[in-house]
Design goal:
The structure holds two protein chains of two kinds. Chain A is an alpha+beta fold. Chain A is 20% helix and 28% strand. The chains are: A alpha+beta, B mainly beta.
Amino acid sequence: MNRYIRSILFIGLPLAIMTYLFYQGQIWSVNHVSYINAGQPHPLNCISCHVTPQREGFLADLLNDSYLSPLNIAVSSNGNKLYITAQDGNALIVADVNSGKVITKIPVGNKPHSVILSRDEELAYVSNQWSNNIYIIDLIQYEVIDTIMVGGGPAGFDLDAEGKYLYVANTYTSDLSIIDLDSRQEIRRLLAGNKPMAVDIAPDEQTVYISSRRTIPVPFRTPPKTELTVVDANSKRVVDRKYITSAHIMENVTFTPSGDLAFVTLVRPKNLVPSTQVEQGWMMNHGIGVIEHKEGGRVAQFLLDEPNRFFADPFDVIFSKDGKHAFISHSGFDHISVINVDVIRELLAKANDKDLANYANHLGLSYTYVEKRIPTGPNPKGMALSPGGDKLYVAERYADQISVFDTKTYESVGQIDLGGPKKVTVVRHGARLFSNSSRTFHNQYSCYTCHPDGHEDGLTYDLVGSGRNLANVQTLRDLAGTSPFKWNGKNVSVYMQCGMRFSTFVTRTEVFPPEDLDALVAYIKRELTHPPNLYQLPDNKLSPAQQRGKGIFERTHDNYENEIPVDNRCITCHPPPNFTDKQMSNVGTIKETDDFLLLDAPNLNNIYESAPYLHDGSAASLEEIWTVFAGQDEHGVVNDMTKDQLNDLIEYLRSLGPERNYRDVIILKSEL
Amino acid sequence: MRRKTIILFGVVLIIGLGGILMTAARYEQIDDLLIFTQVSSEDGSILFDDPDVWRYSIKARIVAVDIDDPANEVDVLTSDFYSARSPEVSYDGNKLLFTACLIENDPWQIWEMDLYEKSYRSIISRNENCTDPVYLPDGRILYSVQEKDSIGNVINAIYAVNADGCCENRLTFHPHNDFAPSVHKDGRVLVVSQQNYPNKGDQIMLVMRPDGTKAEMYYKSEEKASFMSRGWETPAGRFVFIESTDINPGNGSLISISHNRPLHSRIEHSKGYKGNFHSVYPLQSGALMVSYQESAKDIFGLYEYDLTTNNLGEKLVSDAGFHCIEPVMAVERLLPRKLPTRVDKKIKRGYYVCLNTDFSQEPTNVRGSTDNKTRIVEVIGLGGKIVDIQVEEDGSFYLELPPDTPVRFQTLNENGELIRGPSAWTWVRPNERRGCVGCHEDREYAPENIVPLAIDKKPVSLLLEEQEVRYEFGH
């Protein structure tokens, strides 16, 4: 063989093979991306799907970063220091106002939510939402000196004037812990609405208000009713449960300095209205609830939106020192609204019940009481005023900074950099997109509005706009590995879920550009996780009831020793690790109003947090799935079970946690 | 040989560099180009009390001038045309749309010009007059067509066509004169609209999605005003236009409204000015370019106008023989949102749901009766009443309608007495679902969050069977 032929063989042949493989690979990858992205044009980028969204791995770590995400703020009485909870940084940050520098970062528990100072300001209390406790921090030594266990998911809290009692809203267990700070013991646990978020004690120290995020259970296809729990500060008992109708996501509650009114931030969803359009506020409105704090006081709602501009996801509300103005942070629209409180008082004074009903839907009324809209950085959350009331501090969660505004001119007068990473990673960009309403028509809602903290809002929507195919909102937490998505299983990927049809039916505006879609998907898959499962015992052990429930979940024979067909066993459609076989089934729950026959088996991770249940939200509880909607045993064989057995099954279901706890467990259908 | 090669190389290099320099120079020129319409000041073709006349001027021409040196002689862009109007520049600032007729008495048609090459092409060719072209962000072109509706009335309807002139698609279907479309940043289209049948209505500003869905009133002057020219959105989010009232027809006033609250934010900026405004265009700087005449005897010139101080600046452009109107700038502009569409022409129906017919801001027509609760909704087509339908106890009704067909509604009580109506004309596009909160309700009210009883039933169908119209709609 002469050397020319050898050269061709050694160089040309590998080149030809590589070229062939390259083109074949390109064709395959184009088809693959086209499939994942529902045929929509999208630039090829393997990293977008296979590296950036990963939770672990060298490359994923390289591409991502650890941010702080400031959430809430407390100010020292001399105005020199800010204390800031860093939700993703798991720290309490102490910052010097005068120098604009961070003094220290004190490591705290998992997902710190709020911070409050003791009356002598020697201690700070921090609620660790995912650790289910309150940290007590010595502000001289800057160290954690004690821990108080409370209910699940402590979030907002308030301290009485004497500094003796701490009232803590436990979001995940839907109750209120009252802590005696002398003994540092929880002395009372009171039921408080559904997913309570915030607490405020009235200036007269007689009453405590607790606002909730989710509606209490209401009859199917009726408006949400979200509880404002009223606790008597003397008896420490619940004395009233006020229901804010057609509203939810009441993230914060605050009394005016005079105590005559309390404001709650809220969202007014239009989930029952056929979603024929977004125009004229047909999908989501945002506003405040105003509670007259007196005997027989009324509850009114005022919108903060305008006819063609919406101010999504109001989060915090605080009042100026003189009580004449309220500041409301819109975490979904990167603005602060400044409210003239006296105008609200005047409107209330002249309103009858019919007027109040009209106020709640009047998009133009905000022009009478909104004095100013102040633009902020990304995702403004908690706020605080300087002791003199001349400065407003705003935690800009997705900028890792505190912005400072002059309360007279409403101008920005500076920022305090908390020291987070300066680069905006793809995932961080996705976080900003997720929480921002700019990608919906007229900024009417963000992803966060229906998926607060990446979860779901507990409502069923008529997105088709015809009273048909009603859709119970599903959680976005721990989605990876659970495709397809949507109840009818039409979307094979999160890309498809958030793609063109999403734009047509949900956002009703321009489709996400490819780089934004990449970022959004990466954020959803990487960052949105369930909080620790409150029903799981340490080391994934099971309680006796859960153990019995597991037996029922995996049983092969019913109580009469009849063999249960493989396809009708719980574990067949809901196998670990995600408790879904990702297949379509008919479980007998399809209604006449549904245009599809089969449903995607949902994953069961932290299922106890996701009431109501079934694809249309018609089952108010897990129990109802196998009682009211049991049918002829299409949804597993259950009609032979005793009440105790059903209780055990449900106890076990509640303990099912995210995939990471079960990744070593593989059950093949063929082994059943 | 070598020398020849060097010379050849040098020539090619010089030509290439020269070409690049010339191209760059032309870019610079286009960036500063002010384009406007000139209408002869002698033939009296600007008549403000009759929009049919001012839209079809005699021997009008579109010209360009360097904004930095407006005293220079204008460059006539439409010298090949008998008359041309309504210049509109593409979002990248490179192309010009206009309406023109090549020879006298030809119908006005839509043309597009490449501003670099000065070449032009016909976008559409119809027998009817086509005016007021505007670019959509997806590259399609909207314009107004003067034509006859199904019962023979002459109307103007809005059409859309692809940039290559294919796939013409009508968007508005009511017996109105719809003209002067413009595109808002949110992706919707604003159209000047005036009911033509059964009686002449007031001019209003209509807003709709660029597929013709969700059409609704955007703005109506409280003073029964006429719109003198196309409106434009400023960078600050106000919508500016020229209005003329019944009291003083032809006396154009400069008006702005806020996009956030268009029905209640009207500001008349030109109160201190005795002259007339004709047209307006927002500049990137935040100022306006306006066409203004100091008195009826004077010609219209172009001025800069500060919207915040209401100061009319120096006259930038004027020409003794011509009114200078309809200014636009050849600059890159922010692309509005590209809105998705659910219109599907294969689906020969649309749906209309009203949440509560009794929710209204208008007084009832019923005299001497306490029964003001709506029991019946009368559906009216171009040919008259089509059908009566029962409304639900909560005042809701749900209709399945033939698409692209104008209808009106009026509400009756149990005794058949008219409560309110008839409403404005409306239509649904194929596969469109439309909703309304009430009847003639205040459009600043969002719907109450309830399930309307009607939506739990099948819609009342005005179709007989698949693709067949059940009732006579006046076609």
